[in-house]
Amino acid sequence: MDIETKNEGGILLVKPLSGRLDAGSAPAFKSRMVDYILQDNMYIAMDLSEVEFMDSSGLSVLLSTLKTIGDRGRLVLFGISPNVARLFSITRLDRGVFEIHEDSKTAIQSLNRVA
Q1: Which of 10, 57, 65, 98 is a good FRET partner for 21, with 20 to 30 A between their CA atoms?
Q2: How far is Cα 25 from Cα 75, in angstroms, rounded to an integer?
Q3: pTM for this one?
Q4: Cβ atoms 92, 63 nearer than 8 A
């Protein structure tokens, strides 16, 4: 899975470039996320604007990333497409589990307040 990353003032911006985050791409994506965290990237803003489809495997990777970071940092999401937003809504993960923002600016501002 191709992933674009950029470090902006101690915040790692992660952008999966695949249109799908599913059983086929989830293991590689999870491995990359663990690598980023092991490199001490504890404040991550994830841009999901390229992801048009996500299944339970994709959600599992995001939950695993959140758990791996723990209370040592934060993960925020932004740029979520309507299809993926519907999945977050159905699973209620958009309520109290994941912090979701409209765009990179608000996501980064949110992380800067605590980083």
Answers
A1: 10
A2: 20
A3: 0.93
A4: no
